[in-house]
Amino acid sequence: MLSPNIKTILILDAVTCAAMFLLCVFAAATVAPLLGLPAGVVTAAGWICLAAALPMVGVAAQRVPSRGLTNLIAVGNLCWAVASFAVLAIFAQQMSWLGIAATVVQALVVLEFALIEAKGAATLPRATAAG
Question: TM spans, by residue (predicted)?
């Protein structure tokens, strides 16, 4: 039994990444001033989210999701959460209260995704050598 349905978690994670991509890339001129972040940082975050969403969809589409790739996605999410707090540390003086709150909340949500995905990966079978 996959707990808590790792495919659903990966799809949900991919959907949130896709939403961030659309918001950060196509509305950067509006979003950046609201957050108090440079538009380049917001846009870069959007493109990173797109790059993260693609393997999530690919792994979720596998008959049995790859344990290694699911762990890699979890590690990527952990890195994103750490990077979010780094952005906060670097830009806190210029960020709006909304930007600080949004950065902290999304970092915590992504950290939760990382933990759930790592737990789900542990339930997946290990890859076996062909032959």
Answer: 9-29, 35-57, 69-91, 97-116
Number of domains in the chain: 1
For the residues 53-78, what does the mean pLDDT come to?
97
Distance from C-alpha of 23 to C-alpha of 85, rounded to nearest angstrom: 20
In a domain, 14, yes or no: yes
How far, in Å, CA of 127 to CA of 94, rounded? 47
CB 77 within 8 A of CB 107: no
Residue range 70-94: mean pLDDT, rounded: 98
Whether 3 has a pLDDT exceeding 50, the answer reads no
Give domain status of residue 80, yes or no. yes
Instruction: Kindly report the pTM of this predicted structure.
Output: 0.90
Domain that holds residue 15: 6-122
Whose CA is closest to 73, among 1, 8, 2, 14? 14
Whether residue 39 lies inside any domain: the answer is yes
Give domain status of residue 128, yes or no: no
Per-residue pLDDT band for 119 (boundaries 50, 70, 90) equals: very high
Residue 127, pLDDT score: 77
